[in-house]
Amino acid sequence: MENQAYTLKNVLLETGFEYEAGEVVNTKTALFCIEVEHGKIKSIKPNSPNIDGIDAKGRLLLPAFKDMHAHLDKMLFGLPWQAVSAKRKTVKDMIAYEQRMIPEWLKTAVERTEKLIDFLHAYGTDFIRSHFNVDPTSGLDSLYHLEEALRHKRKSLAAELVAFPQHGIYYTQTESLLKEAAKMDSVGFIGGVDPYSIDGSIEKPMDLITQLALDNGKGIDLHLHERGDSGVKTIEFLIDKALENPQLKGKTYVSHAFALGHMSTPETEKIAERLAAAGVGIVSSVPFRGTIMPIPTLRKHGVEVLIGNDNIQDHWSTFGSGNMLQKAHLIAELYGYSTEWELSRTLAFATRYVLPLDDKGAQQWPKAGDDADMVLVAASCSAEAVSRISTITSLIHKGNIVFNET
Known about the structure:
Blueprint lengths: L5 E15 L2 E15 L2 E7 L7 E2 L4 E4 L1 E6 L20 H15 L3 H13 L3 E9 L7 H12 L5 E7 L10 H8 L4 E7 L1 H5 L3 H14 L2 E6 L4 H16 L7 E5 L8 H14 L1 E5 L10 H6 L4 E3 L16 H12 L4 H7 L1 H4 L22 E4 L4 H7 L3 E6 L2 E5 L2
Parallel strand pairs: 1-4, 6-7, 7-8, 8-9, 9-10, 10-11, 11-12, 12-13
Antiparallel strand pairs: 1-2, 2-3, 5-14, 14-15, 15-16
């Protein structure tokens, strides 16, 4: 149903918290009718079960999910099953493998990207930040194929794109290609990867990345797997650049940033303060081979922490489920968020901080005028949805009903 006016009836919305002795013990809910028109929520009214409309059957309405770190252009999804090879141990091993395989992968990239998007839709995702390879092997073909797939899915998905020199900027002479990609309107962020271990320098590649972002009005989203001193120094370098150039504040991110998971508590507190002051965010796929990221400390200091699936059946990892609600559940389990209030707050990691209730229990979403980006979930409240990884029964993007199984 494309941008038509329609009404959802029997929609369950959260209306507040119920307290006992000062503790949130339950989430209040009620049934409503929601009018949708021109991709927006037109009105929210008391429920009228007998009116004409689409019956939500008492399903809980939540904001649609946002996957903030994906590689739609580069995965094995849609190809025969293939587990990760133990022979490829380093990033440079992966680069060599990609140089050999990319020409073959590009042949079916558009079709397989669309299949992956459909897979993510089934878990309630309607927004993705996707990196795309920029390298001498693929040139800019990864971008062109991704743009084509996104055009085909424009009614069901919004995306922002990161130019990602996966094979290093100088290690494989990618500088000119990255400069070309930085000028393109469809590209929102300049990426990079492990500047010290891949390009042999922190300053040279990072200077180029930040200057391209500044010259072209882009953000930055840097892959940083390095865990030792070079990882910390790279994060500090980016913090300093953001402090020197306020236009980068709120537009600069470090993906993975594993070094933060291997610092002392005082060091973590200090760098979290600096990240917050510089407006530099962290993007995480949460756990990674024994590295537990200090998400509670980062959030305590006001650092924006975004969550994504990263790998979904690719040559780097086969464990990405595509399910952002599962990611929120995993965060709750890892950090011990088990109360009604804590679980309801943890949903924010799946929705990029859009929540039905604020911290005090005041209803703040949905409101008339909001974009109609929403999911229906087989749960009684946000806390249950996170705890039980509840089933998504409907996805609506800008008023377009992507699927409806209620």
